[in-house]
Amino acid sequence: AAYLEDGAVTGATILAGGAVTLTAGKQFLLTISAYAIGSSFIVGVGAGAGIVVVTDGGGATAYLGTNSHVGRPGSSVGSVSLSATHTASVHEFANASVNVLALGNGGAGVGIAAGVLVITIGASAASVASAEVRRGTLIYATGTVRVASTFTPTVVAHAAGGAGGLVIAVGAVVVHITIAGLVLAAVRDAVRIEAGSLEIAASDTVDATAELVAVAIGLFGGSGARIDVDVDVHTRAFVGSTAGVTTTLATGGSISLLATSSRTLSAYSHGGAGGAAAVSFLIASANQTGSTEAGILGNTAILRALGVSVTADLLSATSTATVVVGS
To answer: Which pLDDT tens digit goes with each residue over 99-120?
Structure first.
């Protein structure tokens, strides 16, 4: 986190000229591959199980604390920038083609394979990237005051399970990906900003792709695969409040609020079972909820500005779920 500390009456104060920059960044970069193989080459049971759980919690935070002072009348600073960036990337290790591989070879007996991959980035309603000018802050700047937050999670997941046995073969794979959180760029209540211009921007770019294969071959063969990709991201850019003290803005240039989102989800599940009695059970789902909002709330007074723009743009939102079954 990068911040000026909150104050009960008067918070942190910066009166020096020049640029004031607070930048908070979080990078979560993970490559994973797990292999589990179980074999019984004569008569018996061969079992393989691979379980991988990945969690990225928390976020990036940059803020001017409650009752902070940046510049003062007649002695302004230059520009003011608050930036919070959260980048998360999960994919296969090196040249591996899967994150989780589970194989079970029962030889002349029973083969069992199970694979589980759970990836969680963020949490519903929890901040993943937040840039704020908090309550009661005073800013006097000759340049631009910019408040910006960015959330960019990318997940590429592949899982596979295979089981073989002369008598019984059972293979099952489960993949669950969850990406959630709040992306916030805000100027709160009781704030006064006098500046060259004001920019408030929040954005998210979500890309989640998951593919799995489950195969079982035996006299009695059964394969099951389930893949769920769930995204619940709320991206908000706003100024003011509906119940607090009025926020006052005065700029020589423009005031802009921008919230943008781009979300791409794909779930692909395929597999099959072979034998005298073969059953395949496959599920794939890709679901997205959330919101993209920009707004000037009720208790806001704009005394001076060359122009005011408020934009919320869901640039793209695609969800694809595909199931291919063979037996």
So the answer is: 566 555 555 556 666 778 889 9
- The CA distance from 183 to 185, in Å, is 7
Q: 192-237: per-residue pLDDT in tens?
A: 999 999 999 999 999 999 888 776 666 665 667 788 999 999 999 9
Residues 6+ apart with CB under 8 A from 268: 210, 211, 212, 227, 284, 320, 321, 322, 324
For residue 204, what are its two tokens? 């998210």
How much is the pTM?
A: 0.89
CA angle centred on 292, ends 289 and 298, rounded to 5°: 125
Name the burial class of residue 2, with classes exposed (0-12), middle (13-18) and buried (19+) by CB atoms within 10 angstroms of its CB: middle
Instruction: Report how far Cα 129 is from the mean position of its chain's Cα atoms.
Output: 9
Q: What is the rounded distance in angstroms from the CA atom of residue 217 to the CA atom of residue 214?
A: 10
